[in-house]
Amino acid sequence: MIWIILVLYIAYSGIKIYAAMAEMGYILEAKKWKPVILSAQNYEKAAAYKIAVQKFTI
Question: What is the total count of domains within the chain?
């Protein structure tokens, strides 16, 4: 029983880490785009903040 829980937890953790890393990659790529709603300075701050949050969740 404990092995099943352990395997499920490892799978959940792996998926969560993969999703966080994929999101960080997308943000790094989107950081190069032209800002539409925010000013350029706020756009870069928002990207840096989101990357920091994703690193913290990992």
Answer: 1
